[in-house]
Design brief:
Shape: globular
CATH architecture of the largest domain: Roll
Mean pLDDT: 94
Helix content: 10-25%
Number of strands: 8
Order of helices and strands: EHEHEEEHEEE
CATH superfamily of the largest domain: 2,3-Dihydroxybiphenyl 1,2-Dioxygenase, domain 1
Radius of gyration: 18 Å
Number of helices: 3
CATH class of the largest domain: Alpha Beta
Structural class: alpha/beta
Strand content: 25-35%
CATH topology of the largest domain: 2,3-Dihydroxybiphenyl 1,2-Dioxygenase, domain 1
Distance between the termini: 23 Å
Low-confidence stretches: none
Number of domains: 2
């Protein structure tokens, strides 16, 4: 039997918190191209439920959350909280809990030009990967509130695929 969570199918959604849900909705719908599916909230408790279930201060208010679908892959659950004990700053990739979202595109250069035309801050120019990721190009960019995002493209695959029995899931080939 394979180790791991029994009956696991895959990732259902990625959740993250933003400082302003309206700004995030505008960015993810009108710049990235995700679809807003539904929203919930506000949610507030006077017991310890928030701390017990979400590991936040018990008097924190979840103002609203919205679910988005992005292309063939990721669902996003985006939260706006009113924390009872303050908020930490956006982590960098090098910080514990640092992260980024990566969007696959068929044509990186066209996508980069599009982001530039929308005033999105790019972190450098597209980079060609090496070694096992040879065949991929990528570039990081920032949301309006500083969240780290990435575009990547590898229309002809990556070098690791030549000798690997297991291949990474590919957004352009969702059934494979």
């Amino acid at each position: 039997m394979k180790p791991g969570i029994p009956t696991l199918r895959g990732t259902d959604h990625i959740g993250f918190t933003v400082p302003n849900l309206e700004e995030a909705t505008d960015f993810f719908v009108n710049v990235i191209g995700c679809d807003l599916v539904y929203s919930l909230g506000p949610f507030e408790r006077q017991d310890d439920w928030m701390q017990e279930h979400l590991n936040v201060h018990p008097r924190t208010v979840m103002r609203e959350l919205r679910f988005f679908r992005c292309g063939f892959g990721s669902n996003f659950e985006i939260f706006e909280y009113q924390p009872a004990d303050g908020q930490a700053t956006q982590p960098r990739n090098s910080d514990i809990g640092g992260h980024h979202l990566c969007f696959y595109v068929d044509d990186l250069d066209v996508a980069v030009d599009y982001l530039k035309s929308h005033g999105v801050r790019l972190l450098g120019e597209p980079t060609a990967s090496q070694n096992a990721s040879l065949g991929q190009r990528w570039v990081y960019f920032l949301s309006p509130w500083g969240m780290q995002l990435e575009l990547c493209s590898y229309p002809n695959g990556k070098a690791y695929e030549q000798n690997s029995a297991v291949k990474l899931w590919h957004p352009a080939l969702p059934g494979q």
